[in-house]
Amino acid sequence: MMTRASTPHAACGLAAQRMRSRTQIPSTKSSFSVSRRRASSTRSPATPVRAVSEPSSSTPFTASSSHLENWSPSSWRDYTALQQPNYPDEAALRAAVAEIERMPPLVFAGETRTLQDRLAAAARGEAFLMQGGDCAESFEQFSTNKVRDLYRLLLQMGVVVQYGGGVPVVKIARLAGTCSVGVGWRCREALGAARGVLSLSFSRSLVLTRLCASVCASGQFAKPRSADMEKVGDAELPSYRGDIINGPEFTAEARVPDPQRLVKAYHQSAATLNLVRAFSSGGYAALDRVADWELEFMKASDEGEKYLELASRVKEAITFMKSCGIASLSELQETEFFVSHECLLLDYEAALTREDSTTGLYYGCSGHYLWCGERTRQLDNAHVAFMKGIGNPIGVKVSDKMDPGQLVELVQTLNPDNSPGRISIIVRMGAEKLRAVFPSLIQAVKEAGQVVTWVCDPMHGNTESCNGYKTRRFENVRAEIEAFFDVHEQTGSIPGGVHLEMTGENVTECIGGGSSVGETDLESRYHTHCDPRLNAEQALELAFYVGARLKDRRDRGLNHI
């Protein structure tokens, strides 16, 4: 997906300068043992295409020559690669990969460096990351309305969290090509005139001005699975791994991996981004339209009413600032696009890896922000081997199974220069385990002097079965977010973000919350192909909670390092 160039502003430059002035730990070579060679390692390596670099104020991730010795976009083939499909037609796979190699990069290097600045700010408590969307998106469910509704919901959540927390919100949507828009990053001196209208006290004089859009790309068509086979009754077939690999229908034909799905995912992501770009550049995301983002089915709900009350206050503040000549309409409509997905299908990722023409560094040009999952973060396996060589900001999902020493080694492997904003640790444990395990992870990272952005995924540690449906209870999801904030207060660290599986649709997939979805309601509107998602009312309720926790931290002077 092509994105327009990011143009950093003075405020961003100052933030980046402060980031670069922080003490860095020396880089040391980490151990990284080679595992067995894949059978497919005989394929011809992809020839990287140089990408045009966009300007950015950030310090790019750089690694020592020893760290990247013998690294190339295809060197992952020398390692064990988990969660990869077994394509029956090798020639068809090579043809699909070659077709993607000829396509334009989806993102540019300078844009990823700008995002790294934003994530570095979140690590310092000067911003907050919100990530939300589908677990695994479906080709069939793609529609303008679906894209629009998630877009609107993320706009709402961003305003709610920023209003409470008083810091810019960086959003990343877990949906193929769909975007969210957050606010902040400019006009740091303007708050004084508007403070009385907003009844806020933003800690660093940040105002609701510049829009920051974050987009999720093609990788969310894929889904790692715990089992290779799926059984229904007496029949057993290969597991559904996402529409980029095979189909959800329980038939032998649908479950055969098809490499042409890689190409389709690329094109659908590009089409979605075109739609999102039209929303963003056409004024749909302007803050003076904040009340228009309300979803129709939400208007009669308690959370919907709370949002409309907040929207009224924001509009009053914007009107006041404009009357004082503080905020121009162009500033209120500016956008940045960031795309994100799980770095899962390595044939696809390698095909979209490009060498930056100005720095000589490689970037994964399938998305700005990539993450490796709980099942693919092994130090001696292919995903870490691939990701250590690309300059993108990287997320790592960890459960209660993660050993503190292993986490430190993993962070060192992926970020030997200790570049702020390079690494986000996404914790997924369940509330009880998080309170027991998470402090030791924070302490280990602190003692190692490593700079990371801590993010809470309250969804994956709270999955259960009810009436034959895979579901999650809202109370458990909220409890894990509560535990996440509590542990950070206990350890003196910074909560950097929240990672949710959610939709702008009025689904009944998660139990509880203000929407009052009961166990018997699951069957009425259960539409997910994979994991259960929060509906719009449930997601907005969590946004209000997160905003309240950030406000409490701000009021007590805990928001910054």
Verbal overview:
There is one protein chain. This protein is of the alpha/beta class and 561 residues long. It has one domain (85-555): TIM Barrel (Alpha-Beta Barrel). Helix content is 35%, strand content 14%. The protein has helices spanning 10-20, 90-102, 109-123, 144-165, 191-198, 260-281, 302-323, 329-333, 346-351, 382-387, 404-414, 431-447, 474-491, 536-555, and strands at 49-51, 128-133, 169-174, 179-183, 211-216, 229-232, 235-238, 339-342, 353-356, 362-364, 369-372, 394-398, 423-427, 453-456, 463-466, 469-472, 495-501. A ten-stranded mixed β-sheet has the order 3-2-17-14-13-12-11-8-5-4. Strands 1-9-10 form a three-stranded mixed β-sheet. A hairpin with a 5-residue loop joins strand 9 and strand 10. Helix 2 (90-102) packs parallel to helix 6 (260-281) and helix 13 packs parallel to helix 14 (536-555). The relative contact order is 0.16. The model is unreliable at 1-55 and 176-219 (pLDDT under 50).
Separate helix tally: 14
Mean pLDDT over the residues: 77
Strand content: 5-15%
Question: What is the CATH level 1 assignment?
Answer: Alpha Beta
- N-C termini distance: 36 Å
Radius of gyration: 22 Å
Helix content: 25-40%
Quick summary of this structure?
By secondary structure, the chain is of the alpha/beta class. The protein has helices at 10-20, 90-102, 109-123, 144-165, 191-198, 260-281, 302-323, 329-333, 346-351, 382-387, 404-414, 431-447, 474-491, 536-555; strands at residues 49-51, 128-133, 169-174, 179-183, 211-216, 229-232, 235-238, 339-342, 353-356, 362-364, 369-372, 394-398, 423-427, 453-456, 463-466, 469-472, 495-501.
